[in-house]
């Protein structure tokens, strides 16, 4: 497994496993504490694992957490997803940058998303399982959602949206979310 820096989002990494394939399929390590540690992350900081299953066209996000934020390790364990990260850390050199990736069960690449970044994805296959490992317990009171179709972000979602949660559908735009965060920190 190797760690590759994501230039568009300061502090983000792609962890690419080394698959061992044969006639049965493949085997690969999807998490390696030593590799995570080698880029300055604490592998023991991750406290919860979750899994979502989505069907083609489902869009989840853009989500982030208020307060201390939440760092995530995200991996598509089955199928394919179009994954998006938006840097919303005001002190970051990549503030407001948007980066997108295709994650798939074929490659098992894991994306590290630093706290303070928004995250969302769209399922590209009939079934897509997405695994999350987060660095602090989830608190729904800290959930923040940004409109997936905000024109300022101009995210090129690859498919028409077939389904999304009510919360995601009603999400405010980026400018409103940033204004609310500014008021809370003042």
Notes on the protein architecture:
The chain has 3 helices and 13 strands, in the order E-E-E-E-H-E-E-E-E-E-E-E-E-E-H-H. The chain is mainly beta and 186 residues long. Strand 3 and strand 4 form a beta hairpin. The protein is globular and about 50 Å long.
Q: Give the uncertain stretches in residue-range form.
A: none
Question: How much is the average pLDDT?
Answer: 94
Structural class: mainly beta
Distance between the termini: 43 Å
The coarse silhouette is globular
**Count of runs of 4 or more consecutive helical residues:** 3
**In total, how many beta strands?**
13
Percent of residues in β-strands: 35-45%
Following the backbone from N to C, one meets helices and strands in this order, namely: EEEEHEEEEEEEEEHH
State the major sheet.
6 strands, antiparallel
> What fraction, in percent, of the residue positions are helical?
10-25%
- Biggest sheet strand order reads 1-2-10-7-12-5
Keywords: Isomerase
Pfam families: dTDP_sugar_isom
Protein name: dTDP-4-dehydrorhamnose 3,5-epimerase family protein
Family: Belongs to the dTDP-4-dehydrorhamnose 3,5-epimerase family.
Helix and strand arrangement:
Layout: E1 2-5, E2 13-16, E3 20-22, E4 25-27, H1 33-38, E5 48-54, E6 59-65, E7 72-78, E8 80-87, E9 98-104, E10 110-113, E11 117-123, E12 128-134, E13 143-145, H2 166-169, H3 174-185
């Amino acid at each position: 497994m190797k760690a590759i820096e994501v230039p568009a989002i300061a502090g983000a990494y792609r962890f690419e496993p080394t698959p061992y394939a044969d006639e049965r399929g493949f085997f690969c390590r999807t998490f390696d504490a030593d590799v995570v540690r080698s880029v300055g992350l604490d592998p023991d900081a991750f406290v919860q694992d979750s899994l979502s299953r989505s069907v083609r066209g489902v869009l989840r996000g853009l989500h982030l957490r208020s307060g201390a934020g939440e760092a995530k390790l995200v991996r598509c364990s089955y199928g394919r997803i179009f994954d998006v990260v938006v840097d919303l850390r005001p002190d970051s050199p990549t503030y407001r940058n948007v980066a997108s990736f295709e994650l798939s069960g074929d490659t098992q690449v894991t994306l590290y998303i630093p706290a303070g970044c928004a995250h969302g994805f769209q399922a590209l296959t009939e079934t897509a399982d997405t695994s999350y490992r987060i660095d602090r317990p989830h608190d729904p009171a800290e959930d923040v959602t940004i409109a997936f179709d905000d024109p300022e972000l101009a995210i090129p979602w690859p498919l028409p949206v077939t389904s999304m949660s009510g919360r995601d559908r009603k999400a405010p735009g980026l400018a409103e979310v940033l204004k609310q965060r500014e008021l809370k920190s003042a």
